[in-house]
């Protein structure tokens, strides 16, 4: 259908009246196009010495992904849940068997670096984009790692790989806007992802003056690309994300375009006459004002929470033909909710999103309705335990950065770990306990 003759004020992601037709049209954006590129991605050149590989055809793919996530309540909640489960009980440097000197050094390092914010941040990057960027900063002598920083993945871009496939650097900038000047970009040397420890040793042995190095923790994917495609991309390439969005648009349109009449209030003319007579109101203007106040009084009686359970008394009489005539009659017209037509569809769409995100819907409470099957407390504890156990591969990938820190700083007897939060039963007299997963020493 040709829409060229319709008004220009039709908005995307909305429901509009089609002029001349007894119908409405829903305008939406196809979410599957976010991960699809029609042309090969070529490096973007900043100057003679600086270029980068754009993330998506317009370099805006991470922000498009975030926009899609933020538009869906269930998807955003699942992403937050997955990041929090990956965080577990938090990253810990275990110094139980370390010497007093090493314990003090580790304590100083932890005070200088917000490890909690760092680890929760990289956990979110992992769950959103499939990789995380950490930056190690050495002291002036190059003998100790003194700072650990997280660079938000959505603001990181990779330089083109060299002839042997090695990416030399990470470019950090505000890519939401057009970046055309090298002064707006922070260029960070990237350690070889396949051998970061050896690469760091080689760089320092060549007496480099650089004291800042980036390490990429990346989830291996079956398709090796500069920027990994997250596992939940199938949600956008399929139909269920769009279906859920359309259900929301349809429900909103029905609620906006249908003003349900809940009560029909019949008031006899004799009621008003008796009211005016009782209060001695003869002025027409004052009579109208009194009618307005009485109507508001009746509405307040019907809708006020403090009037719940109260009764309305009204006089009536019987006509010669046997019919009752009341002064005031209140008829309830509609007791059903508007917009409930898609209740089962929205539950199905939410379950599909939770399934794709590998989150049981009962753990995040995202499925609406009172008739849903609810798991027992034991089932939920097991589901939460399983969700945490599945984070081990991600923890192993993230531990590489900290094993390098521990080894470089010569912290003997220090190990890195992320304890699980084990939900307990009532007989243990506590809500939860931490379970440490034994890991190899650094």
What does this structure look like?
It is a single chain. The protein is α+β, with helices and mostly antiparallel strands and 442 residues long. It contains 13 helices and 18 strands. The strands form seven sheets. A six-stranded mixed sheet has the order 7-6-11-10-9-8. β10, α5 and β11 form a beta-alpha-beta unit.
Low-confidence parts: 1-23, 25-29
> Strand content of the residues, in percent?
15-25%
**Within the largest sheet, what's the order of strands?**
7-6-11-10-9-8
Q: What is the number of beta strands?
A: 18
Shape: elongated
Main beta-sheet annotation? 6 strands, mixed
Number of helical segments?
13
Q: Structural class, judged by helices and strands?
A: alpha+beta
Helix content: 25-40%
How far the N terminus sits from the C terminus, by CA atoms, comes to 65 Å
- Name the average pLDDT: 79
Key features?
single chain; about 450 residues; alpha+beta; 13 helices; 18 strands; about 15% strand; elongated; disordered N terminus
In short:
With 442 residues, the chain is α+β, with helices and mostly antiparallel strands. It has helices at 61-70, 73-87, 100-112, 115-129, 196-205, 233-237, 240-257, 269-279, 284-303, 343-356, 361-364, 377-389, 392-408; strands at 14-17, 24-27, 44-45, 51-52, 92-94, 131-138, 145-151, 156-158, 169-172, 186-190, 212-218, 263-267, 316-318, 324-326, 328-332, 415-417, 420-423, 432-435. It contains 13 helices and 18 strands.
């Amino acid at each position: 259908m040709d829409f060229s003759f319709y008004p220009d004020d039709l908005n995307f992601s909305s429901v509009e009246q089609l002029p001349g037709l007894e119908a409405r049209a829903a305008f939406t954006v196809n979410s599957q196009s976010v991960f699809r590129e029609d042309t090969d991605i070529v490096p973007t050149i900043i100057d003679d010495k600086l270029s980068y590989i754009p993330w998506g055809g317009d370099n805006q793919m991470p922000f498009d992904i975030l926009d899609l996530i933020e538009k869906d309540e269930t998807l955003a909640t699942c992403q937050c849940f997955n990041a929090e489960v990956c965080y577990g009980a938090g990253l810990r440097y275990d110094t139980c068997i370390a010497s007093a000197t090493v314990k003090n050094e580790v304590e100083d390092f932890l005070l200088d670096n917000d490890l909690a914010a760092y680890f929760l941040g990289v956990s979110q990057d992992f769950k959103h984009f499939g990789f995380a960027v950490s930056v190690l900063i050495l002291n002036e002598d190059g003998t100790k790692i003194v700072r650990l920083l997280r660079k938000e993945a959505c603001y990181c871009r990779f330089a083109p790989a060299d002839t042997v496939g090695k990416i030399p650097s990470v470019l950090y900038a505000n890519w939401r806007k057009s970046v055309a000047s090298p002064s707006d970009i922070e260029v960070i040397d990237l350690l070889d992802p396949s051998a970061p420890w050896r690469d760091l040793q080689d760089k320092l042995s060549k007496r480099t003056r650089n004291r800042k190095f980036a390490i990429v923790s990346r989830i291996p994917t079956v398709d090796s690309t500069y920027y990994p495609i997250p596992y939940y991309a199938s949600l956008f390439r399929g139909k269920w994300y769009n279906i859920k969005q359309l259900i929301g648009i349809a429900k909103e349109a029905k609620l906006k375009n249908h003003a349900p009449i809940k009560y029909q209030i019949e008031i006899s003319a004799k009621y008003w006459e008796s009211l005016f007579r009782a209060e001695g109101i003869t002025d027409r203007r004052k009579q109208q004002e009194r009618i307005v106040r009485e109507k508001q009084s009746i509405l307040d009686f019907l809708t006020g929470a403090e009037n719940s359970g109260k009764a309305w008394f009204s006089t009536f009489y019987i006509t010669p033909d046997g019919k009752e005539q009341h002064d005031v009659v209140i008829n309830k017209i509609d007791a059903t909710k508007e917009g409930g037509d898609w209740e089962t569809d929205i539950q199905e769409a939410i379950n599909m999103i939770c399934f794709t995100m590998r989150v049981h819907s009962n753990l995040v409470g995202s499925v609406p309705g009172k008739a849903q099957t609810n798991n027992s407390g034991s089932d939920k504890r097991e589901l939460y335990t399983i969700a945490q156990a599945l984070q081990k591969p991600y923890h192993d990938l993230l531990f590489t950065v900290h094993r390098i820190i521990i080894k470089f700083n010569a912290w003997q007897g220090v190990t890195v770990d992320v304890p699980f939060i084990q939900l307990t039963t009532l007989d243990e007299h506590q809500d939860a306990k931490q379970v440490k997963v034994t890991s190899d020493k650094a």
